[in-house]
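Worked problem 6 (solution included).
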Amino acid sequence: MHGTKKFFTTVKAFSLAVIAFHSIILSAAQTDFIKVLHRSDIDDLYDINMNCRWLRDNQIGFSNWYKTADRGRSFTRQYVEKSVTVTLLLNDKPVKFGRLYNESFWQPDKMRRVHIGLAGAGVKIRQELAIFNDQTGYLVKLSGLKGKTGTLTVTLKSMGQGKGSVKNNLVTFDIDRDYHKGFTHCFAVSLPQTSTAEIADVSVTPYPAGYSVKDKIDTESRAVITVPVDGQQEEIEFFLISALVKTGNTIPVDELQKKVKNPEAFFSSRLKEWQDYFSTAVPELESSDIRLLQFYAWNYYIFKANTYLDHDNSPYYICPSKEWSWLPLNWDEDSAHIISGARWLNSPAQLKMMENMFFHFMQNSSPLSYGLMTMAGWEYYLRTGSKEFLQKAYDAIKNIRKRYTKNMRGDLVIQRNSFLIGWDDSLRYAWGGYNKNLRNFERQIMPVDLNSYLVRECQIMAEAAIILGKPEEAAFWKAQADKTSKEIQRLMWDENSGFYYDIFADDHTKLMCKASSGFTPMCAGIPNRKQAEKMLKLLKDPGEFGSRYAIPTLAVSEPKRGNNWSGDIAGRNNWLVEQGLARYDRDSSAWITEKTVELFMRREGARAGGYIKPDKLTENHRLFVTEIAGGLDMVIRHIIGFTPETDGFSILPAALDKNMDHLRWQIEFRGKQIEIYWDRPNGDIKFSGIPEGYSVLIDGQRVFNSKSIPTVRKNFPLK
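Solution. The predicted structure is:
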């Protein structure tokens, strides 16, 4: 395991022109989303494609936690992993570095960060980082070294413990202990001929293994590469590639050797991958509103970044977040929200991925969906119009509903465990001092949200039965929806507060905790008009749910509200509430769309952590697909104005800002090219051949134009 070996590669000089190559823009037909996503406000820069991030400001290098799709769930190791560290010793003293904040940025094809030596005047380190498939490319340039002597050290940490070797400029570790047991971790490195490499096992402070590993982690295998700094060179530049290969598979030595000699090709391949994605898989959007473009692009970025590939490199599934410990497909709720947003992808392969994700949860071994996956499947059907999918989904839902009846009393479903419902730690279940153990309720609950989703499921099944030519079954589903709706009205509505609540299963006492789940009956059209008006007052009241960054899980007025599901905002709930608002009030659906964009678009770019404070600027920039995906759906339906219908589509841009200068959106929809234009009527024609105002084109033919923003929904049937 120990030894010192020479490297036999030379440093290749790269000009600034090469570095600038990565800023190539997309074709004129598509907005430059690479540029739109570019941001410099992130302190902890990272790429969630494979959970890769820079080390903290006073350290040079990166951490790269590989979570392969076949590993199941991940664990806490990712938070301490350091894959590569770079240190500099001048005149026998370590050089400390501080980041130059105006010279750092993130964009999907690469990250860049520049540091300056605080104890070595004039020394700079510039780092560039990119991920292409399962390989991480790391380009480092040190400058200001002329006349200085010392050593440059590059430490390569394996993903665990195992036998290491060095051959030419390739370092490999065959990992036999730790999370990546059964993998070979490779580093291809381009460094001067004078470099030496030493491999050794290093003891580390033990920490719990967590998921998937039985023993504690106390030893890691590393390679330390030392480069002499002789005072003759002004700069040193090197490039390395980190890759993971499953044991038994051939290590792509020739490929890695070729790539490590040509950083330009590596970075440009990564750029082209993102250009192709935004040019082909993402419906085109052009707008004068840069914030709208950012929000739109961030959604599509996280769809791709959190996509795992199948063995043939086709899209397999989108997980909630590779950056967190959420693998694979996880809960039905997460996938339901993801499908509802990602159904707007244009690529047939990615739409097929949505279908596969749906049926993954339509098995008897899957978590119970309680209607959420049915709602997502219906949205997918409206996007594609595929009766083949609808028939298959209809049969699968009928089958899985047999499991619901085991948890039903009369026409309402009962729950005994908050972790099966969601809202894991919420006070909504502990009203009256009961249910302190949320994993095992003392008093069973009839949740208002799950029962409302079941009503919506029956309504969807009734609509599907009509489309599939099953009128008798449609009548059955409608009758079941009506029964549960009446029970929700009878038992869960409180006239005094004007809201719906969970109830205890034993005596139907209401749990008078005002939670945003109380809005979900609107999804199924359960409240009457007067009830809806009372609920809308609560929704927009700043002292209740109408906080600056709406909507909180518990109302601001709740005296015992706290964090997470007991008072913070979980963005996924905004989409569920909006599904109901769209039935009742055009202005309210516009209101929640605007609030949702504001929720995620604070400062330079999107932020979508798991929980967000209702009235504070949360600095968490991480992007959790489950939370933000519904926001894209709202933008398309209420700002762009496009809503799929069973027979075609309708338009109603309720949240489109009349002061927006212009907007153009184009999508492939059921074999038709749909284009939507907004050109503010000010006498300045923006789009050639398109009149001012709001216009709709189908396959290049204009079928609608209004000088002002339409305020009444208009339908466009498609043959």
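Discussion: The chain has 16 helices and 36 strands.
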